[in-house]
Design brief:
Keywords: Signal. The protein is an alpha+beta fold and 206 residues long. It has two domains: 103 residues, Translation Initiation Factor IF3 (2-Layer Sandwich), CATH 3.30.110; 94 residues, Alpha-Beta Plaits, CATH 3.30.70. Helices cover 31% and strands 36% of the residues. It is built from six helices and nine strands. The strands form two sheets. A five-stranded antiparallel β-sheet has the order 4-5-3-6-8. Strands 1-2-9-7 form a four-stranded antiparallel β-sheet. The longest helix is centred in the last third of the chain and has 26 residues. It is rod-shaped, with a radius of gyration of 27 Å. The two termini are 19 Å apart.
């Protein structure tokens, strides 16, 4: 019986299931299903900034901005004054067209693995420019495999504990499934919550 709510998996609650299933035409078997969990620890490996330039906002506060080209030029000069290399900015003109700016707008994407470069970008603040930051939280292939093994071992341990409590003897594993942890997650905030890798095992009850 699969758990219906992921929160149940995160809390490490496992369920004892005694089910009767048809085996052939006359025989039946009982099964025990448990869930094992292990804490996932991610590292930030990449940073991304989405920068939106909106002439509607800048036009009235900055008389120098008569068009989007003026706004871009002023913004770029401020970035270069901070020592920021603007060659890494990738413009997305088509994306900005969907925002419906009356006087014009554009957007840029910037990615880096260097936190200091992102800090330089964040120092420039001006009307008409909005920046949203994203963080890439990642685990390696080796970590992913290790978390899977740890969750499996935890499930086996939980099965043995439940079997002892219920005074039953468990046999072979007859089913296995997992809540697979994604290799990476892009997030706009600090992932301070706990994340778990989970494996569910079904054991034959002797």
């Amino acid at each position: 019986m699969q758990t219906k709510h992921h929160s149940i998996l995160l809390l490490g609650i496992f369920t004892l299931l005694l089910s009767m299933s048809s085996f052939g035409q006359q025989e039946t078997f009982k099964s025990l299903k448990v869930t094992g969990n292990t804490l996932v620890k991610r590292s930030i490996t990449q940073y991304r900034a989405k920068i939106t330039l909106n002439l509607d906002q800048a036009y009235y506060s900055n008389p120098e901005c008569q068009n989007i080209a003026d706004l871009k030029a002023i913004y770029f000069e401020k970035l270069k004054a901070q020592g920021f290399d603007i060659s890494g900015l990738v413009e997305n003109e088509m994306e900005a067209s969907y925002y419906g700016y009356l006087k014009g707008g554009t957007s840029f994407t910037y990615e880096t693995a260097d936190k200091e470069e992102l800090a330089l970008l964040s120092k420039v603040r001006m009307n008409g420019v909005t920046t949203t930051y994203f963080f890439k939280y990642e685990i390696t292939d080796q970590q992913q495999d290790q978390y899977r093994k740890e969750a499996f071992k935890d499930a086996v341990k939980n099965a043995e504990k439940l079997a002892k409590i219920a005074s039953i003897e468990i046999g072979d594993i007859i089913s296995i499934s997992e809540f697979k942890v994604q290799k990476y997650i892009w997030s706009t905030y600090d992932m301070g919550h706990e994340e778990y890798a989970s494996v569910q095992l079904g054991f034959l009850i002797k």
